[in-house]
Design a protein that fits this description.
By secondary structure, the protein is mainly beta. It has 1 helix and 8 strands. The chain has one domain. The strands form 2 sheets. The protein has a 6-stranded antiparallel sheet. It has a two-stranded antiparallel ribbon with strand order 6-7.
Length: 103
């Protein structure tokens, strides 16, 4: 069984038991969050009709909040005395997918 969810403007392919990092979510560590599935599917034939309805829900647990690796942005104009460097670290949330419910 798998599902495709959307969070933080990105889409993720998830299966139960998977741990992934998404853009920062509000909520304390250990709380459960629910995502609406854009698409879901199951190996069983009886769930094939339910998979076509967009009412599947994905339940996940927040494991921790963290920051991603530092990304350096460097700008330079040739033959000019212009150089500029800046960095960015994205705020992330690590979640564990608990269950996919087809309805």
């Amino acid at each position: 069984m798998y599902a495709i969810i959307e969070t933080g403007g990105k889409q993720y392919w998830v299966v139960p038991g998977e741990i992934l990092q998404v853009e920062k979510l509000t909520g304390q560590e250990g709380t459960e969050v629910t995502f609406k599935a854009l698409w879901s599917a199951s190996q069983e034939a009886k769930d094939a009709a339910a998979a076509k309805t967009p009412s599947a829900k994905v339940t996940a647990r927040i494991i921790r909040h963290l920051r991603g690796p530092k990304i350096i942005v460097f700008r330079k104009k040739t033959k000019k005395a212009y150089e500029k460097a800046s960095g960015h670290r994205q705020e992330l949330t690590e979640i564990e997918v608990k269950d996919i419910q087809l309805s």
